[in-house]
Amino acid sequence: MSTTEQKSKGWFGRNWKWCLPVGCLGVTVPIIACIALVFFGVFGALKSSEVYLAALERAQQDPRVTSELGTPIEPGMMVSGSISFDGSSGNADLSIPLTGPNNSGTLHVVAEKRGETWNYSVMEVTVEGKMEPINLLE
After folding, report:
1. Are residues 39 and 71 located together in one domain of the fold?
2. How far apart are CA 127 and CA 118, in angstroms?
3. Are the CB atoms for 105 and 98 separated by under 8 Å?
4. pLDDT score for 109
5. Each residue's pLDDT tens digit in the chain (138 positions)?
6. pTM of the entire structure?
7. Domain count, the chain
8. Residue 1 belongs to some domain of the structure
């Protein structure tokens, strides 16, 4: 190809081989960043809630749970459920995966907020391989 043919091509014609991948990354990276921000924001909000922290502390200190799972008991990454509150009222329904050196399980919590306190109707740990959950409200 001669020098005159190269000059007749436009900027995109000369640079499309690197411009196309950079353009795709320029669109894809912000989308992935937004999804990650929402994902970690939601899990962060659930994990910092009063219901989550109180239930996790109770499970980690319960001798029946520690005898089944061992110590230390660590919460898993993928908390599922919902929590909503508006001032002095709210509802929470969470499932928190737990792992210990001996076994793993799931902490299920259902609570309702009235005034300044959360009232728990369900707080139990279901251990893998066991049929009967451990009721933490007893």
Report:
1. no
2. 25
3. yes
4. 96
5. 555 555 678 877 887 788 878 888 888 888 888 887 777 766 666 777 889 999 999 999 999 999 999 999 999 988 888 888 887 889 999 999 999 999 999 999 999 999 888 999 999 999 999 889 999 998
6. 0.73
7. 2
8. no
In angstroms, the CA 133 to CA 131 distance is 7
Strands 134-135 and 117-127: antiparallel
| Residue 110 tokens, joined | 């259902």
Contacts of residue 122, defined as CB under 8 A and 6 or more positions apart, other chains included, come to 108, 109, 110, 137
pLDDT of residue 93: 94
What tokens appear for 82 in the block? 């919902």
Q: How far apart are CA 108 and CA 65, in angstroms?
A: 13
**64 and 38 co-located in one domain:** no
**What is the rounded CA–CA span in Å between residue 10 and residue 55?**
64
Are 37 and 78 members of one domain? no
Kindly write down the DSSP assignment for every residue of 25-50, as one continuous string: HHHHHHHHHHHHHHHHHHHHHHHTSH
Residue 124 CA to residue 10 CA, distance in Å, equals 68
109 domain-assigned: yes
